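Re-run with default settings, no changes from the original entry. Doing this only to confirm the output is reproducible before filing.
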Amino acid sequence: MKALLSLAKKFLAAVLPGVIRPLHALWNQILGFLFLVLAVLMVRPVWQGWKEMELGPEHFLRFLLSAFMLAVMLGFAIHAFWKARRIGRR
């Protein structure tokens, strides 16, 4: 029984890194894509906020918040893709 457990442990130690690493990279690519989609969806509110910025302080605040969200989502997307590439290179 101990020999079988030892053999199973060696098998898992050999196989799991080869399975988990691509899944980890794929997960980061999926997250990067989702954040990129969210960033693209934020382009329209930023553009509208830019055009309406002179109408008052609430429009300026809306523009700033939209631009901040666009920058955050784009930053998360770039970071996720960069991390997926780094995981894939190991």
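The chain has a mean pLDDT of 91. The two ends are 35 Å apart (CA to CA).
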